[in-house]
Design brief:
By secondary structure, this protein is an alpha+beta fold. 28% of the residues lie in helices and 22% in strands. Helix 1 runs parallel beside helix 11 and helix 3 crosses helix 11. The longest helix has 22 residues. The two termini are 28 Å apart.
C-alpha cells in the first residue's frame, strides 16, 4: 500500500518513458519516489506504448545500430526538420547525453533488436525496442518497482499547490476520494494537450474536430495548464505538434503506430478536390513524414488520399486497414467519392511529367517530375500498373509542442526567468524547448529519456538540499 501521509523526496506526475526515467534516476540517486499515473494500469505509459525506437548519437556501429551517427549529424538533422527553431545549447546537450542514455536504458532492463528495414531507413540512427514500446515500458516499470518506487494508477492530479516558484503539494482524485500528496520536489512528465479537442480548437478552430489522436486519450494537458497558471514560463507555438498522416478509418484515440502510412513517397497525395497540393518526394521519410499531418490539416475537410499502383504495394508497411482498390483510376475515384475526371487528369498530368531515373527508396534518388506544380522531387514513377490503390488519410496528432521552459538540468523556468525552486519537467510537456516545429523519427523518445534522467537526478539532489 502507498502511504499518502508521508512526504516523498520526489513526486513524478506522469507514467510514460520520461516519467519512469525520472523515477528510476531519482531512486538510484537515493530519493524516495512516488509516481502518479492518471490512466488505469492497463493503459499506463501514455504515448510511449505506441513507440518503437529511440534516436541517439553514437560513435560506431553496434549489434543493433548499423553505423555511427555523430553528434554533429544528429544536430544537423534537428536543424533541418525544425528550420532552426530550436534552443541550440539545450539541443546539443540533449544529443550529447543521448549517447550515454542509450547504454543506461539497457541497464534498466530494456532490450533492443536489429532495426527494421524498408522505407524507414533508420538502422543507423535509431535503436529499436525489442517488443516495441509496451515491452520497453514494462521493463522500466519492473525496474522502478524493484528499486522501491511507489506507483499509483487511476490517480489524476486535479490541483497543484505552487507558491512563489516552489512546489508544495499535489491534489489527486482516486476512487472518488481526494488526497493531498506532499513531496520535496516535483517532476512534471504528464504529456501535452493533444487529447483535449476543445483546447486544440482554440488554435485550430473547427478543423480540430477532424483530427485523430494517435496516442492516449489521457493527455489532456491539465498539469501543463496548472503549471502555466502558476507562473511557469511557457515555450512553443501552440499550433505546432507532431502530426502525421494516418488512415482516416482509425479510431478517434489510441490508434497508435499501426494506423500510420509509410507510402506517401510511392505515389501522389490529393485532396477532396482530387488535386495534388505538395511535393511527395521532398526528403527521406524519417525526416519529413511528420509534415504530412499539418499539410492534410490545411486541406478542405482535413482529408486527403494517397494514390499509388501495384508496383509499389509491397514496398512499405501497410496500415491496419486494407487499401481501397480500383481496376482503373476512374473506378478508384468513384470508390473514393472523388471527381473521376479531375483525378484522372491529375494522375495523367503527373505521369506525363515523370522523368526516368534510377529508383532507390532508401535514398534521395533522381526520379523526378519536370514542369509540374507542385513537383515531385524524388521517387517519381508513373502510376500506370493496375490495380490502383488508395488510402484515405487525416491528421494524426501525436503530441503538442506548447510546454514549459526548462534549462539544461531539466529545471522549470518561471516567468521572471529564474529557475523554479524545486520543479523539473521532462518529455512531451517540455518538448517545445527542442522542437520548435517538425519531427524526426524517434526524437520524442530521446527528449523523454534524456530529460527524464536529468530531471530525476536533479530532483533527487534538490530534495537532499
Amino acid at each position: 500500500m502507498v502511504d499518502l501521509t508521508r512526504q516523498y523526496d520526489v513526486l513524478v506526475v506522469g507514467g510514460g518513458n520520461a516519467a519512469l526515467c525520472a523515477a528510476i534516476g531519482a531512486r538510484r540517486s537515493g530519493a524516495s519516489v512516488l509516481v502518479l499515473e492518471g490512466a488505469p494500469k492497463f493503459y499506463r505509459g501514455g504515448n510511449t506504448r505506441h513507440t518503437r525506437n529511440f534516436r541517439c548519437a553514437h560513435d560506431s556501429a553496434t549489434e543493433t545500430l548499423t553505423g555511427p551517427y555523430s553528434e554533429e549529424e544528429f544536430f544537423d538533422d534537428l536543424l533541418r526538420i525544425t528550420g532552426g527553431e530550436t534552443n541550440e545549447p539545450l539541443a546539443r546537450h540533449m544529443i550529447r547525453e543521448s549517447k550515454e542514455v542509450l547504454i543506461w536504458l539497457g541497464e534498466q532492463g530494456i532490450q533492443f533488436q536489429p532495426s527494421l528495414g524498408g522505407t524507414l531507413t533508420l538502422g543507423r540512427t535509431n535503436a529499436f525496442f525489442l517488443g516495441g514500446g509496451r515491452a520497453m515500458l514494462n521493463a522500466l516499470y519492473r525496474t522502478a518497482e524493484d528499486l522501491g518506487v511507489d506507483i499509483l494508477y487511476d490517480a489524476p492530479v486535479t490541483a497543484l499547490d505552487i507558491q512563489d516558484g516552489m512546489f508544495l503539494s499535489a491534489t489527486i482524485t482516486r476512487d472518488q476520494a481526494t488526497s493531498v500528496v506532499r513531496a520535496r520536489t516535483l517532476v512534471a512528465a504528464a504529456g501535452g494537450f493533444e487529447a483535449n479537442i476543445e483546447w486544440m480548437k482554440e488554435y485550430w478552430g473547427e478543423a480540430a474536430d477532424n483530427f485523430l489522436i494517435r496516442g492516449t486519450p489521457y493527455n489532456r494537458g491539465s498539469v501543463l495548464r496548472m503549471l502555466l497558471d502558476s507562473g511557469v514560463q511557457e515555450i512553443g507555438d501552440p499550433t505546432q505538434c507532431h502530426a502525421v498522416a494516418i488512415d482516416a478509418r482509425a479510431p478517434k484515440y489510441d490508434g497508435g503506430i499501426i494506423t500510420r502510412l509509410d507510402c506517401v513517397v510511392f505515389g501522389v497525395v490529393v485532396n477532396k478536390n482530387a488535386e495534388r497540393f505538395y511535393d511527395e518526394g521532398e526528403d527521406v521519410w524519417p525526416k519529413r513524414y511528420a509534415i504530412w499531418g499539418r499539410l492534410v490539416a490545411a486541406q478542405p475537410d482535413q482529408i486527403a488520399y494517397i494514390i499509388f499502383d501495384a508496383s509499389s504495394l509491397k514496398l512499405f508497411m501497410p496500415s491496419l486497414f486494407p487499401p481501397i482498390t480500383g481496376g482503373s483510376i476512374r473506378e478508384l475515384a468513384q470508390k473514393l467519392e472523388l471527381n473521376a475526371d479531375v483525378l484522372d487528369k491529375t494522375v495523367s498530368d503527373f505521369n506525363a511529367a515523370v522523368r526516368p531515373g534510377t529508383f532507390n527508396y532508401n535514398d534521395l534518388d533522381d526520379c523526378r517530375t519536370e514542369g509540374l506544380t507542385p513537383p515531385k522531387s524524388h521517387w517519381a514513377r508513373k502510376i500506370e500498373t493496375a490495380p490502383f490503390y488508395a488510402y484515405p488519410v487525416r491528421p494524426g496528432i501525436t503530441f503538442t509542442y506548447l510546454g514549459v521552459r526548462v534549462n539544461d538540468q531539466a529545471r522549470i523556468i518561471m516567468k521572471d526567468g529564474k529557475p523554479a525552486a524545486n520543479m523539473f519537467a521532462a518529455g512531451e510537456i517540455m518538448a517545445g524547448n527542442v522542437l520548435g516545429r517538425g519531427y524526426a523519427a524517434g526524437i520524442g523518445m530521446t527528449i523523454g529519456s534524456v530529460f527524464g534522467r536529468l530531471a530525476g537526478r536533479g530532483a533527487s539532489k534538490n530534495a537532499r538540499n
